[in-house]
Amino acid sequence: MSYQIATIPGDGxxxxxxxxxxxxxxxxxADRGVDVEFVEYGWGSDRYLAEGRMMPEDGLxxxxxxxxxxxxxxxxxxxxxxxxxxxxxxxxxxxxxxQVCKRPSTxxxxxxxxxxxxxxxxxxxxxxxxxxxxxxxxxGGREHVGFPHEVAIQTSVFTRRGTxxxxxxxxxxxxxxxxxxxxxxxxxxxxxxxxxWDDLVEEVGAEYPDVTVERLLxxxxxxxxxxxxxxxxxxxxxxxxxxxxxxxxxxxxxxxxLAPSGxxxxxxxxxxxxxxxxxxxxxxxGQGIANPIATVLSGAMLFExxxxxxxxxxxxxxxxxxxxxxxxxxxxxLGGSASTGDVVAALEARL
Length: 351
Ligand code: GGG
Hints:
Layout: E1 2-10, H1 14-31, E2 35-40, H2 45-51, H3 59-64, E3 68-73, H4 81-95, E4 100-106, E5 124-130, E6 140-143, E7 151-154, H5 160-176, E8 180-185, H6 193-205, E9 212-217, H7 218-227, E10 234-237, H8 239-252, E11 260-264, E12 272-276, H9 293-306, H10 309-324, H11 340-350
Parallel strand pairs: 1-2, 1-3, 3-12, 5-10, 8-9, 8-10
Antiparallel strand pairs: 4-5, 4-11, 6-7, 11-12
Helix pairs in contact: 1-9, 1-11, 5-6, 7-8, 9-10, 10-11
């Protein structure tokens, strides 16, 4: 098979982790006889600062023909965060109907959790985050700007189509895993949208009688991701809650530098997009010390979803082997002093 993968390195450490990992993907694919072509798009905040747009007007049209998209990171100290997000990342998720965001949190063998008493294998859950609507809907406005009676309104949007899609994906994953799903809301306070979410959990859940459902409010869930992360298996949450919870999931499993994600177009009509959960990390950008593993694991998710399970498994095994090896290089986020390139070279040696 042959695949064309669009890459958007983006900002900050995004270009560092993407440029370090692409040769690894290319060589692995070539070794296994899989034809992969990466087409790079240099969009992001530098382009915004030079030309006033994060991507060209026809940017989404250009991406549409790709088999998948690999993104590095977006965010720049000189550009407001809502500009970078609404100028690049969110339009891709929305236009390509990437309704399902999958974000696994795994405490790998050999990785230290900040939580006392947890070792490799103790934490292993996946968050299904609704990805194209909810609290991220671009609906609202501001009036009377600068006056004492200034008002800002931001409306959340929960549709039956979007909510059912994320719930179905999460329930289906739960049947493949341990048969346990935790649904996160704030339905005690948000009596319209989140009670609707709860109702659909009941409705969709009836189709999956073997899945046990736990419901948690997001405040309790935030606490329990730290207090008892080992008890979670599949977690489903709205766009904003999923975003926040997956940062907690990443840090309790060792580092933001290990957390991958996939923004999935379930019907396969449009390309899905894979990206490390971490952002552009301007504090370490340019130093060559960003952890490339989240990008490698995002690549593994990409290959799995396009149908190249062999490539995905090889990357996953290489990462697991490297992390389990106390002599292997580690970037500073994992307590080491290795560079991005050192880690990729060690992964390549394992592959
Ligand atoms: N690598 C992804 C990235 O740059 N994320 C920045 C960010 O703030 N993302 C928000 C989101 O995932 O909704």
